[in-house]
Structures are given as C-alpha cells and as structure tokens.
Amino acid sequence: MAIEFRNVSKHFGNTLVVDDLSLEIRDGEFVVLLGPSGCGKTTTLRMLAGLESVSSGDIFIGSERVNDVPTQHRDLAMVFQSYALYPHMTIAENIAYPLRVRKLDRAQRAGRVKRVAAMLEIESLLERKPRQLSGGERQRVALARAIVREPRAYLMDEPLSNLDARLRVQMRGELKRLQHQLGTTTIYVTHDQAEAMTLASRVGVMRKGRLQQFDTPMNIYNHPANQFVAEFVGSPSMNFVEGRIEAGRFVSDALQIPLKSDRLSGPVTIGIRPEHIQVLTQPQDGAIAATVYVTELMGNETFVFLSVGPNRLIARAPAEFRAELESRVWITITTDKIHFFDQKRNADNTD
To answer: Are strands 3-12 and 56-61 parallel, antiparallel or unpaired?
Structure first.
C-alpha cells in the first residue's frame, strides 16, 4: 500500500517537531527514516499510526486521507523497541492475540500462527512463555505478532535496539528477507546508519524535524545533499576541512589539493570519505605529509587517525598496515571523490 505525507507538521505546544514533511512511499517499499534522537522520525511514525494528531498537512494510505481515521481502523501493524509480550500467555497466544481481538475463528487463528511461526523459525517456541525466551527469540515473536495480522503496512520503531551486536546483524538479514517475501510496505525508524544502509530501498534522513534527503542508500552515501547528511551517513564519518579554492587548488592550513574540475574560487568546506585517503609509509610526488595520531585495528582493515597541520583526518588502510604513533606518513587523496559544501549554507543550517 502506498503512503504519502503532504506538507505534514507537528507541534507540541510551541515546539515544532516535524516541519512541513512531504514524502511519497511506494507500495511494497522498505523505507527507513534515519536521524539522531529528537529529529522527528518517531513522531512521524506515530502520526501515521494515529497515535499522534497532525497539526497541519495530510497523510494518505493509498487514496484514503487518514488524518481523522482512528488507529484501529488504519490497518497498520507496529513493532516497538520493547517487545510488549503478555507474560501470562504462551507464545502461540501472544502471536494470535491481534486475530482474537478481530474475532477470527479458532481454526483461522491457528492456521495463521502456524504459518508465521514457520516463516520465522519459531515453531518450537509456541508453547513456551516469554520469560523462557532469549532477546532474539522475543523479537521474532514480536515480529510474528505484527506479521500475522496481514496489515496494509508495517511500522517499526527501532525494533532491534535492545539486541546485542551479533543478533542485530542476524535480525537485519531476517527482516530484509521477510519484507522481500511478504512484499508489504514497511517504514522503519532508526538512528543506526548501518541498519538504514543494509535494509532500505530508500532512506529519508531527518534533522530537527526536517527531511534532509530522500533517496537510495548508495545515492545518499555517494551524493549527500548537504554536510549533515554526509557526516551522519558513513562509518567512520566523512572528513571535513575548511579552506578556499584558488587557481584550481583547494588551499587550507598545511593542506593543498589540486582539483581536476574547474570550480569557482572562494571559501568552501571539502568532504573526503576515509576510503578515499591512501596512507603511504614512503614519500612520493604529490603526496601530503601527515603524522599518525593513533591507529585502530579492526580485523579486516585499519583506521588511521592522522594530523595534517591543525586538521585531523581518518583514513582506511589495509589490515596489515602498521605505523607507530607520532610517526611520519604521507597521504594521497582521490580528488574526483571530494565533496564540496558551501560554508555559508552550512552555517545557516546549524541553528
């Protein structure tokens, strides 16, 4: 089912939480709303669910305007951070509860529960109680309870945040597989850019109630709309250096980079992804001298934190890279991968 926000705003008293949001989500799409705490992403989800009223603008599910439609009649299923399972019920009863509320007969309920449990590989847990399950198993049950309803769309508010790192990775894969299998429109809220990049068909990046960019994960990563998006998406974060362009070169304290493209002169902030900085242990023509501040061995790669004059940069290096702290190295930069951000525009967007 397609979903659309048309110029939707939400105030809590004098505080503007969501600001003129316009967003079109296609039928069957997996959309992630990504942003830091307090950016308005959960409020957006709650307005869609009918748990919060809309201050202005319109929300459509399919062709139906749902601003005034009660929550129970919107036919949406929500999965929250907390699993909210009934402790006195068995897992089968927990999964079947939404169907019981809708007065489906016992045979239909049992059939759906069995089918969804098989899909999530929790058939062996159906007679247990929630207290007998691990966190990952409880999360599967919460998903099963949402899926069993066969709603028009799924709304997920940071459903994996209570799991440990290994289970989060595992459940990300399960969610992606399930959504592909079900083909149901899904809107997923998170502050974790790894979840957004791995799960979404499109990502909406939000900041202070405003939608900053809505695009595919790779377009957001490779072509960020502004410096906030560039910094928020990517780990380690993009490097930023303030300077100016003079005669086809970017010039900053201790850093001069020849540019392949002709750009207007003047002040600018450049952004460089860590993978576009190459660290050398021997000098070569055109390389820039740097000092190793610290290194972090990650197993399959090494993060190298560098000092270049007053600038601090992070580079990705091969796992076998080794360098002593405070040692001299040299760097080269893939110049056609440099991002340019207007300093005045960035300053205007910091309030």
So the answer is: antiparallel
Backbone angles phi, psi at 232, to 5 degrees: -75, -30
The Cα-based distances of 38 to 31, 160, 207, 258 in angstroms read: 19, 18, 8, 40
Largest interatomic CA distance in the chain: 77
Task: Write the CB contacts of 339 (distance below 8 Å, at least 6 apart in sequence).
Answer: 224, 230, 238, 270, 271, 272
Mean pLDDT of the 166-183 span: 84
Under the banding of pLDDT at 50, 70 and 90, the label for residue 346 is: low
pTM (predicted TM-score): 0.87
Coil, strand or helix at 55: coil
Residue 213 corresponds to which tokens in the numbers above? 């960019």
Element (H, E) at 92: helix 91-101
Which pLDDT tens digit goes with each residue over 95-113?
A: 999 898 888 889 999 999 9
Residue 217 sits at φ, ψ, to 5 deg, of: -55, -45
What pLDDT, in 10s, does the model give residues 143-154? 888 888 889 999
Gap between the Cα atoms of 306 and 191, Å rounded: 27
The mean per-residue pLDDT over the stretch 37-63 comes to 96
CA gap 168, 251 in Å, rounded: 43
- Report DSSP letters for 193-222, one per residue: HHHHHHH-SEEEEEETTEEEEEE-HHHHHH
Q: Which residues of 20-53 are buried (b: 16+ CB within 10 A; e: fewer)?
A: ebebebeebbbbbbbbeeebbbbbbbbbbbbebe
Tokens of 28: 């069957």
